[in-house]
């Protein structure tokens, strides 16, 4: 190891370095200078790129912390007791309209009499007012020629929305 250090000190002695620089002509000096300048520029660009990546990672981590935790929505069918209560209330409110409950969550509201259109449409819209805690959607809606189904028919499905804490 001491012989390597001795050799290095001889190679980079000021006398040898001065001799090496004096032996270079202008074109060689220009090429060597351009290479060192390119290496310096690349070093500066790499430093900026690393700094940008570190700051972007920090900003992403801050954004993740600042992002709100939104609740999860889960749809569940109406329980049997509530569905029967809704059907009974509808039937009591609109006794001349046929209201059936299928599969404990599907309400069929029908009428064969065209003169009862306003009562039928009120029954369809009243279900949402009567039980707003459920999300109601029309599966079928027919007025007029509904085939063997009758003159007016609406099939409404209700689901209860339950919100729960988000899971990470």
Plain-language structure description:
The structure is a single chain. Strands 1, 2, 3, 4 and 5 form a 5-stranded antiparallel β-sheet that branches. The protein has about 170 residues and is α+β, with helices and mostly antiparallel strands. The protein starts with a helix and ends with a strand. It has 5 helices and 5 strands.
Can you lay out the helices and strands and say which pair or pack?
Blueprint: H1 2-11, H2 14-23, H3 26-66, E1 72-77, H4 80-93, E2 98-102, E3 106-111, H5 117-130, E4 134-143, E5 152-164
Antiparallel strand pairs: 1-5, 2-3, 3-5, 4-5
Oligomeric state as shown: single chain
Report the sheet with the most strands, covering strand number, pairing sense and barrel closure.
Answer: 5 strands, antiparallel
Order of helices and strands: HHHEHEEHEE
Mean pLDDT: 84
Query: Can you tell me the residue ranges where pLDDT is under 50 for at least 5 consecutive residues?
Result: none
What share of the residues does DSSP label as strand, in percent? 15-25%
User: How many β strands by DSSP?
Assistant: 5
Helices, by number, come to 5
Helix content: 40-55%
Query: How far apart, in Å, are the first and last alpha carbons?
Result: 58 Å
Structural class from helices and strands?
alpha+beta
Q: C-alpha Rg, in Å? A: 41 Å
Described by the principal axes of the CA atoms, the overall outline is rod-shaped
